[in-house]
């Protein structure tokens, strides 16, 4: 079994870290900004998805609450229509690509 030499190990670690290409301050700032933007987009997506699922479950369990919600919130009607339109377009484009 080989004997462990701490001094040699630290020398090897130092020589390996010198080979690393470290990002510049600008690259780090850009990457950090990209992460924050993607987190914000993901949060917005999951907020909308959660609200759509909540509304769908409410409609399935209580049709009267669904009717009242649609009457009181015309933006909700537009969002649901847009989602259904996107789903329909996606299904149409997939079927068009298959030659159906």
- Oligomer kind: single chain
The helix tally amounts to 4
Low-pLDDT windows of residues: none
State the end-to-end distance: 68 Å
Please give the number of β-strands: 0
Summarize the structure.
The chain has helices at residues 6-19, 25-61, 63-72, 74-97. The chain is mostly helical and 100 residues long.
Describe the structure.
The chain is elongated. It is built from 4 helices and no strands. 85% of the residues lie in helices and 0% in strands.
Question: What is the element layout, followed by pairings?
Answer:
Blueprint: H1 6-19, H2 25-61, H3 63-72, H4 74-97
Helix pairs in contact: 2-3
Name some characteristics of this structure.
100 residues, mainly alpha, 4 helices, elongated
């Amino acid at each position: 079994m080989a004997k462990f030499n701490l001094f040699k190990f630290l020398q090897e670690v130092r020589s390996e870290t010198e080979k690393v290409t470290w990002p510049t301050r600008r690259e780090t700032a850009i990457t950090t900004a990209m992460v924050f933007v993607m987190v914000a987009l993901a949060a917005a997506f999951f907020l909308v998805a959660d609200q759509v699922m909540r509304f769908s479950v409410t409609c399935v369990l209580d049709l009267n609450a669904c009717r009242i919600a649609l009457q009181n919130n015309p933006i909700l009607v537009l969002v649901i229509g847009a989602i259904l339109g996107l789903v329909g377009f996606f299904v149409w484009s997939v079927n068009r690509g298959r030659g159906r």
